[in-house]
Each structure stands twice: as structure tokens, then as C-alpha cells.
Amino acid sequence: MTIRAVVWGENVHDRENEVVRSIYPTGMHGCIAAALNADPAISATTATLDQPEHGLSQARLAEADVLTWWGHKAHGAVAEAVVERVADRVWQGMGLIVLHSGHFSKIFKKLMGAPCSLRWREAGEKERVWVINRSHPIAQGLGASFVIGQTEMYGEPFTIPEPLETVFISWYDGGEVFRSGVTFKRGGGRIFYFAPGHEVYPIYHDANVQAVLRNAVRWAANPAPAWADVNKAPNVPADQAPEPIKQQGPRLHAPGEAGYR
Amino acid sequence: MTIRAVVWGENVHDRENEVVRSIYPTGMHGCIAAALNADPAISATTATLDQPEHGLSQARLAEADVLTWWGHKAHGAVAEAVVERVADRVWQGMGLIVLHSGHFSKIFKKLMGAPCSLRWREAGEKERVWVINRSHPIAQGLGASFVIGQTEMYGEPFTIPEPLETVFISWYDGGEVFRSGVTFKRGGGRIFYFAPGHEVYPIYHDANVQAVLRNAVRWAANPAPAWADVNKAPNVPADQAPEPIKQQGPRLHAPGEAGYR
Amino acid sequence: MTIRAVVWGENVHDRENEVVRSIYPTGMHGCIAAALNADPAISATTATLDQPEHGLSQARLAEADVLTWWGHKAHGAVAEAVVERVADRVWQGMGLIVLHSGHFSKIFKKLMGAPCSLRWREAGEKERVWVINRSHPIAQGLGASFVIGQTEMYGEPFTIPEPLETVFISWYDGGEVFRSGVTFKRGGGRIFYFAPGHEVYPIYHDANVQAVLRNAVRWAANPAPAWADVNKAPNVPADQAPEPIKQQGPRLHAPGEAGYR
Amino acid sequence: MTIRAVVWGENVHDRENEVVRSIYPTGMHGCIAAALNADPAISATTATLDQPEHGLSQARLAEADVLTWWGHKAHGAVAEAVVERVADRVWQGMGLIVLHSGHFSKIFKKLMGAPCSLRWREAGEKERVWVINRSHPIAQGLGASFVIGQTEMYGEPFTIPEPLETVFISWYDGGEVFRSGVTFKRGGGRIFYFAPGHEVYPIYHDANVQAVLRNAVRWAANPAPAWADVNKAPNVPADQAPEPIKQQGPRLHAPGEAGYR
Questions:
Q1: Is the minimum CB–CB distance between D234 and chain C shorter than 8 Å?
Q2: What distances in angstroms separate CA C258 from CA C234, D121, D138, D151, D158, one per listed residue?
Q3: B134 CB near a chain C CB, below 8 Å?
Q4: Which of B88, C157, D68, D146 is the most buried (most CB within 10 A)?
Q5: SS3 C113
Q6: pLDDT at residue B248 above 90?
Q7: With helix as H, strand as E and coil as C, how does chain B read?
Q8: What is the DSSP string of D200-260?
């Protein structure tokens, strides 16, 4: 079964900034999609902010197994309705890979329930990404650590909930550390945040980074059927209780009435 | 040091429903606050939906160590600005106790990043609350389990993130189970969800339930100074890096410029 | 790639107890292995206590992707050397499925670092197993819950570390609850504990239970290469540090000396 | 209520190594106990390997709220009976602070169920300890990070179970990172591992390190009554079940018989 990945890109600096344009002539999303498509198990397409519904219609998301998200300058321009829609699909089981400055995207903050803030510095320094759990699916094919020659520093404290698993921690020239690869689950959806990816450096051309992206998409794809009613709160009347019980005492709701929300 | 607790009540069924009114003549919030004030270490006051800013002004929250939240019929009437404000204070370190139907409150869903849905049945059946970790601060003074004679059934799946700790699991006459006491952390804030508390039964008059509420407030109070900048993303210029580094390579941001969000 | 599973059975009551013998003429391990072999992706063989090295030689374990463990009466008869060997393989990446009374096996207690105690009752009562996360790989193909007609009650508190994920929680006729399906990771190894399986009832003949076993074996199989040096503590001399540093100050160890352990 | 802390020291290099002796004339345990006793809420005494029962008799442990553990050269000399006894007390609710080379102590490995291995280098390099959660009780009074001028490098992968909370992560001159402050719970016991503390450097004289030790002892002290039967597996006969049930079907155990272990 091919994993259907949608690579979402904000596509602003990709078009407007000369440095970014020269590094990523097909956009960062184009580069990431090509990296994913190098894996025969993955079929990746792209979607961008400027498309209708940001390229993320209900129909498109319904057929996505995994969504990757890169945004930075235009977080605020993402429509709330699309954010809600993506969250629903994650809860139903779609995987989500949030990249770099996506830590401040509406969708990541919504799914984390936390500030998702961090320290940062744009000084072209070196980052060394350490593999914390080399048996984790997302770490396959990597060495004990790998280097990104020029990076934007992202430093702790990274105000996320305690992760399910910490896969990578980064060391920086300038003295900081960062949990640069962390996993979460929300409903049926698997979520991976990966820090490297500042747009003025050619980070998504890096072989190790591309391996991480492919691994992450494979890991995040949940073959279970969509959890269609994950957001429902079904009433179970007394006469349909698993064990026989009698209706008794006062009640608020008329039989069959939906709950409040 | 006295723990300052604010007991928030929706105060709708408390006024409008005759059964609820007769059980809770001072409102559910009145009953809960009185239960908390039975502990000399706690000083509890109340706030309700119908007050200006729902009784939760910036100044009031700034002086709250712990907020308890009971809402049901009017989740939708809670102003977004107040929800944001409460979330900010939780991230800064204020404790939050979410009660019963508060599982679908805006604030709980925001902090969980998950549907927070469940099965339910209003049949006056029996609930037995099992203590999973009897050494947990929230379980102090309880036996191995305690019974709530008439309850609304809340059943799994409860679509929350994997909790930090599971303190209670409930058994119901009708055959369901529920993780009825679970903890989380978000930023500096400790969060406890406690399931019992349907308004047409006298649950907040129960001695064991009151003990849980007092324990939970004590547990959730974080004596650390408020994490005032938990939501900030400070830039650390190259010349202020912990280790000496040189600014190099292309950059996106002018020196001193704030990041995007 | 076929998953190589070894089904370990204590094989004591299977031989000595007439009830158990009649339910499981090929032993419980025989029944479990047959259930696993119904999945073409799995190739299961058996090993028992009475075999040399309990059937778990170094060579055998080296070729096992997943080990399932059922023991009860003879926990104390399992050789420490075999327990150590199994733990090493789990840390290297072999999956481990611990069944029922295996909660008190040496290997489970060793990997948990906790008492692993529980309440119990052998009264032939009904157990209803609730699926907490229906999108979890181990829950595939099951309904919202399933019933085991006659079971041994295992009740909370179950003194395990907080699980990575709670997949199942059981309800019992007699009023107890139990986290009956929980996952953990240790090193490269995935661990699943599953409570149902008392030997005087035909539980491993149940279709839902067999589905859980197959799902669990698939989930626990880690395709990553064995983490061969997971137990090593490599010294990294100053002249081989990732970043150039100078050896300085006093030191305890001679160059190249191994650490203490 | 004063917190009763027992500071356990191996006391081998403290006596035998001239460098260590000059830094710690009263032993490392002496220095640590003095640091703890600077907090009026803590009453710390010491115990060492060379004492009868390593200074950790049943009676002594029964009166300890928190035990700190520093060992290195003589891990193997610690009696199994004492290790079992300490584990029992942790499960009952005694706090445990494991220091530096204690990552390979018998007690830490037993409670983790994992290899607890790491990379290391003894080159007198600099360590910068980053505070991941500044609202955590163990981080009170510290800045965003603090420096240890000369340290032994401990590097990832640190093969521990996923921590309950990651409080500190360290950066090293030589390019490595390490989760240098992590929490766990086992039964009623709170466990904190703290990495700094190599014996040939004056690390336990450092004001920040001493603050961490005091904070950790306060955090680890669990005021709950000892969970005396945490290791028991009580049988609950059918006629004492919380809900009325009838004994039925075959059974293995005679009424009142203890379970197997």
C-alpha cells in the first residue's frame, strides 16, 4: 500500500526571498515532496497557502495518510476552518509532520495545547543532531549523530507537553540544546515535530534530513481505518447498556437527546 | 502560604433546573467552594459565567493559584478572550481542575489538543472509583475505592492525550469503565480532570469527592514564580550566545527583529 | 518479511492439571502458536521451561523477532541467566508480549522495575475488555469492547510504571477494573502486557483474544537492526570528541580504560 | 515536618584517591549532606558501603523519606539484599536521588529495567545545564542555564525508559548532549537522576548543583503513608467482591490460597 503524503508549504519566502528561491527553485515543498517520492512506498504531492482552501479541501485531506507542514511568515493567514479540518483528520488517524518554524503554526499549537515557544538565533552556526533512540523507526539509517553545517538555532525551553518519545536532541555551536525530534499522539493521529529546516540554508537538500522525513512519513502513516466518530459523544441509553440496568433517579436530558458541547 | 482557589461555575442549571437548585441552593460552585474552604490551607472564592468577563478578569486570574472549572450547557457562551487568558495563566503556572462535563469546555479542549469525547448515559447508576496510585497526593485519605451511589456514566474511549498519570479509573453498573482522574502538565501548569459531578445528583456533597477536590487543589498549586514569558520566543543574537560564535551566512531577520508567529 | 515469534510456555499446569489439559491438549503455548500461525506474516514456534535453557538459547533468541511469555506456577524455576539473556534481547530490539500471570514473571518484573502486583479472584466471572484507543495497531479488528465469558479477575492497583499507552481497560462482574492492555519500551524493545489468559478457562481459544495476540506480535516486531551495543558504555577520548577539545584537569581513568560497572 | 534524607556514598575514591580526598575531605557524602542540611526543612545523615548492611538497615530505611545514591567503582560490592530492600522502600514511597555514575548502580538499573548505558569522556571540559521546565520544583532558584566548569561528559544515547519529565539537558564543549535531569515514578516512590558529579572535580561544592540537590530532596519526599503492601497480591474471594457475584466454573486455587510468584 502506497502512503499518500501531502506536503504543505507556505510558499511565501520561497517566492519572495531571493536566497530561498535560489536554494529551492521549486519551493521548499517541492524539495520535500521530491525527497519523499524517492521512497517507492510514498506518493507525495504538494499544497500551498495561496491555493483555494490552502490546497487542503475536505476531499484532499480525506485521501491523505500523512500531512507535512512548513510555515513561517504567514501563520496568521491560515484559515481557522482549515486548521479545524486538519485537526479533525489528525484525530481520525492522519499523520502529521510539523517542520521547523511550524512550531508556531496554528495547527501545532492547537494539537499541543501549549505555547510551543523557544529561543532562536539566526547566525549560520553548526547543529549536531543526536539520535536518542536508534531503534526508533524515525532514526533508521542514521549514525549516532549527524551535522547540519549551517542552521538556525532553536533552544530550550521548548514549551511543549512532555513528548511521547524524544527521538533527537540537537547541540549547537553557540551553547544551546533542543529536543529537535519529538513524537506525540492525538486520537488516532501520530505527530512528529522536527526542528531543522530554516529556509535560508539548504537543509532539506541534506541526505540525513531527507532520510528523517521519509522515515517520519512511514512512521506517521496509520493503516487503521479512519476513526470517523472520534469527535462524537454517543449517548448510550439505559436499555442499551452492556450490562442490564434500570433507569432511575432524576435526569436532565430527554431520551435520545444529544449532549451539550 | 494559603492557596488561592477560584471556583468557576457555569451557574445555568444551578438556577434554572429545580432538581439542581434543590441540591445546590448556593450553586454547584457554592458547594465546591465550601468544600475547599474546609481546608485551612485553601482560600476559595467563586466566579460565574454571568459576571463581567465571567468573573475571570486578568487581575483576578493573576492572583489565583488554582482554578476549578464546571460547565455544561453553556460551553459555547464562554468568551474566547477569557479562554485565551485562562490558558495563558495555566501555562504560567496556575493549576486547573476540570470537572465532569467540563471535558467539553473550550479551555479543556484547548489545553488537550484532542477531541475529549466520551460515551455517556444518564441513568442514575452506581459508579465505583478505583484508586490506581494510592501514594499520589490526589488520592490521600481515600480507601482502595469509593462508591458514588448515583452517577452519570462516562465511558471509554475518552479521547484525551495519554495522561501524565492515571489516578482513578471508574467502574459502572452498566458495564463501562472510565479514566475518571487523570493529570497533565502544560507549561508551568498542572491540570487534573475528575469525572464525577453530574448536576442532578448530590455528588459534590460526597465526602470522598470533596476530599479529592481538596487534594487536587493542593496538588495543582505550583509555588514557583509565574513563568511570565512562557509564551515569548526570545531572539538570542550571535554576540550574546552562551558560547562565542561568529555571525555568518545569509539571514532572514534584521538584527533585533521579532520572529514570526 | 515473516515475523519470527517464539511462544514460551511454562507448561506445568498444561501437563499436570486435568482441566487445563483438556482445554489445551497441545499446551497453552501450542494453542497460542497456532493462533499466531493463522497470520501468514507470522511464523511461530514454541519453547518451554522443561527444555534445555528453557528452549531459549542465545542462538534461538538471536533469531526471534518477538517472544511471548506465559508463566504462573514456576516463575521461580526460571534460570536467572535466561532472564538476563531475554532482557538483553529486548533491549536490543526483540519484542516481548507478557501474558496474564506473567505479570509476576522474573522477566516482566525486571523490565518494569516495579512490584507488578494486583488484586485477583478466581470465580469464573465475566470480563469486558474496553478498547481505549481503537486506532492503535493492537486494537485492529476489534469492536468497542469484547467479552470474556469466564475469567480470573485482575484488579487495580496494578503496580506498574505509568504505561507508554493504555490500549485496553477491563470491567469485571465483581466490581473491579484493570488496565488489561498496556505498552512500554525498553531500549529498542517494545513490550505489551495483556491480562486475559487464566489457564482453567478457554481464553486463548477466543477469537478476539487471538486477534489481539496477532496484532501485538505485529506491533512488537521492530524491523530495526539489533541494537547490539545497547548495554555498552563507550569511552570517547578527547581526541575523538565530535568537537575539538583539549584534555585538561585531573582524571580518574587511564586512557582507553573501561568504565566501572 | 522535617524531611529525613540519607546520603549514601560509596566512599572508595573519597578515601583512596588523593585528588578526590583533597576536594572532599569529609567524603562526597559529607559534602552532599552538608549541602542538604543548609535547608532547614531537611535533616540529612550519611551512610556508606563499608558500614554493616552498607548503613542501610531495614530500620534506617524505614525512617528515611529520601535516599541519595552516589556509587562508582564498587557497584558490584553492594549486597543484593540491600538493593532489594531499597527497591521495596522506593515502591512504598521513599524518594530516591541517583547521582552521576549511579546510573550503573544496581538499584538504578533495577528500578529502570533498562541498560542505563551512555557515552562518556573524562577531559575536564565544560558542561552547560539547560533548564527545560523552569516551573518544575527541582528547577527553582536556577537561571535559564548554569555552567559546570569542568565535568565528565555523559552523552546520549542514555538508555533509560522514556522519563516522566525531562528537567535538565546538558550541552558539552566536545559536542555531545545529555538528559542530565530526569524524573520517574515506581509505586509510591519518586525518582530523580542527576548527571553532574564526577569525583575528581569539585562539582558538589557548586551552588547551583547544591540547589538542585535540595530541590530534588524536597520534590522526592512523599508525605503519603508508606504503601506497605505495594508488593502484595491480595486474593479477593467471591463472597468479598465489591459487587455480589457467584463463584462458578473450575478453579486452580483452594479458597484462601496465596497466588504463585
A1: yes
A2: 8, 11, 32, 18, 17
A3: yes
A4: D68
A5: coil
A6: yes
A7: CCEEEEEEECCCHHHHCHHHHHHCCCHHHHHHHHHHHCCCCEEEEEEECCCHHHHCCHHHHHCCCEEEEECCCCHHHCCHHHHHHHHHHHHHCCEEEEEHHHHHCHHHHHHHCCCCCCEEEEEEEEEEEEECCCCCHHHCCCCCEEEEEEEEEEECCCCCCCCCEEEEEEEECCCCEEEEEEEEEECCEEEEEECCCCCCCCHHHCHHHHHHHHHHHHHHCCCCCCCCCCCCCCECCHHHCCCCCCCCCCCCCCCCCCCCC
A8: TTTGGG-HHHHHHHHHHHHHH---SPP-TTTT---B--GGG-SS-----S--SSPTTPPPP
Of the candidates C118, C19, C205, the residue with the CA atom closest to the CA atom of residue D249: C19
- Which chains border B (3 or more CB–CB pairs < 8 Å)? A, C, D
What is the Cα Rg of chain C in Å?
Answer: 21
3-state helix, strand, coil in chain D (%, to 5): 30, 30, 40
Q: pLDDT tens across C167-200, in order?
A: 999 999 999 999 999 999 999 999 999 999 999 9
In whole angstroms, what is the distance from residue D24 CA to residue D20 CA? 6
Q: Given a contact as 3+ CB pairs under 8 Å, which chains touch A?
A: B, C, D
| Partner residue opposite A121 with nearest CB, options B150, B162, B238 | B238
Which cell numbers in the block locate residue A31? 524539495
Per the CB < 8 Å rule, is A157 touching D132? Answer: yes
Cell 444518564 sits on residue: B122
Q: Is the pLDDT of residue C1 over 90?
A: no
Q: Give the integer Cα–Cα distance in Å for A48 and A56.
A: 8
Whole-number Cα distances in Å, A42 to A65, A93, C196: 10, 17, 38
Bridge partners, D95 (sequence order): D66
Torsion of the alpha carbons at C37, C39, C42 and C43, rounded to the nearest 10: 20
For residue D128, give Cα distances in angstroms to A2, A31, D2, D144, D178.
45, 36, 32, 10, 10
Q: What's chain D's length in residues?
A: 261
Is D170's CB within 8 Å of A177's CB? yes
Q: Mutation test of the interface with chain D: which of B135, B142, B232, B245, choosing the one with the most D Cβ atoms within 10 A? A: B135
Find residue A227's DSSP bridge partners: none
**Cα gap C106→C75, rounded to integer Å:** 7
Q: What are phi and psi of D123, to 5 degrees?
A: -130, 15
Q: What is the pLDDT of residues B146-158, one digit of tens each?
A: 999 999 999 999 9
| ipTM, 2 dp | 0.97
CA atoms B115, B118, B122, B124: torsion sign: negative
pLDDT in tens, A192-228: 999 999 999 999 999 999 999 999 999 999 999 999 9
| Contact indicator for D154, D195 with CB cutoff of 8 Å | yes
Rounded-to-integer distance, Cα C158 and Cα C197, Å: 16
Beta strands B66-70 and B3-9 are parallel
Counting beta carbons within 10 angstroms of the beta carbon of residue A231, is it exposed (0 to 12), middle (13 to 18) or buried (19 or more)?
Answer: middle
Please say whether the beta carbons of D121 and C245 come within 8 A.
no
Cα gap D248→D229, rounded to integer Å:
29
Contact yes or no for A125 and B248 at CB 8 A: yes
pLDDT digits (tens, 9 = 90+) for A34-70: 999 999 999 999 999 999 999 999 999 999 999 999 9
Pairing mode of beta strands A95-99, A66-70:
parallel
CA–CA distance, B87 with B186 (Å, rounded to integer): 9
Does residue A21 belong to the interface with chain B, where contact is any CB pair within 8 Å?
no
